Amino acid sequence: MKILYFGVLSEISGKTEENIDFTGTISQLQSRLNEMYPDINKQRFQISVNQHIVDNTHSINQGDEIALLPPFTGG
Amino acid sequence: MKTTTHLIDGPIPSRLISSEIEKHTSKTNIGAHAIFLGQVRADLIGENKVSGIEYSAYEEMIAITVQEIKDSLFAKYDDLICMHIFHSTGMVKVGENSLFVLVSSRHRKHAFRAIEDCVEQIKEKLPVWKKEIFQDGSHKWQNK
């Protein structure tokens, strides 16, 4: 499963993307991310699966593209 | 109904604005264009002055988001003919433009309304992030 990090989250994780072995819900992924990068949960962000924003109960499949999206600040 | 979105590497060149307008001369059902340009402002944060903004974007998601914005605008404003969005990625210095939106309609009212609606939706939904670069070389991710 590929995870993309955007904005300040790329700075906290030190990377823009990585592959991890994971299956489960978004909520479980957040716990895993918190172990990997303790500072990440201090930030506000939404999570998308295959470019669509999902809620915490969404189940992730192998091969999905996950992205961590801080509040958008374009324009 | 036509929509294009382009990510531009660096600032929006002024020749792009004139060439886009030029492209519409053959569309004779258009009676009004509304244009929005976003410009990088030299904000002062504490004693640090912004020298530019570095933009990053989730390219694969942008097409999906623009389609959603387009669908909502065309549903609300039936006079609309077409809309085009150009957003910068990478470094844009103060005084340069980072966003160019062109909305065209049969009559002016829907062009005025749709351009504001479109820009507000871009600010709210488009997966783009700005990193303010200061004159002393430090930076700050802009937060809402």
What would you give as the CATH superfamily of chain A? Beta-grasp domain
CATH topology of chain A: Ubiquitin-like (UB roll)
Helix tally of chain A equals 2
| Low-pLDDT regions of chain B | none
Describe the structure.
By secondary structure, chain A is of the alpha+beta class. Chain A contains two helices and seven strands; from the N terminus they run βαββαββββ. Chain A has one domain (2-69): Ubiquitin-like (UB roll), CATH 3.10.20.30. The radius of gyration of chain A is 11 Å and the shape is globular. The termini of chain A are far apart. Chain B contains three helices and eight strands, in the order βαβββαββαββ. The longest helix of chain B is centred in the middle third of the chain and has 18 residues, at 59-76. Chain B has a single domain, classed as Molybdopterin biosynthesis MoaE subunit (Aldehyde Oxidoreductase, domain 3), CATH 3.90.1170.40. Helices cover 32% and strands 42% of the residues of chain B. With 144 residues, chain B is of the alpha+beta class.
Question: How is the secondary structure organized here?
Answer:
The complex is a heterodimer of chains A (75) and B (144).
Chain A: E1 2-5, H1 8-13, E2 17-19, E3 24-25, H2 26-36, E4 46-49, E5 52-54, E6 59-60, E7 65-69
Parallel strand pairs in A: 1-7
Antiparallel strand pairs in A: 1-2, 3-6, 4-5, 4-7
Chain B: E1 2-9, H1 14-23, E2 32-39, E3 44-45, E4 48-57, H2 59-76, E5 80-93, E6 97-105, H3 108-125, E7 128-134, E8 139-141
Parallel strand pairs in B: 1-5
Antiparallel strand pairs in B: 2-6, 3-4, 4-5, 4-7, 5-6, 7-8
Key descriptive features of the protein:
heterodimer, A: 75 residues, Ubiquitin-like (UB roll), five-stranded mixed beta sheet, 2 helices, globular, B: eight-stranded mixed beta sheet
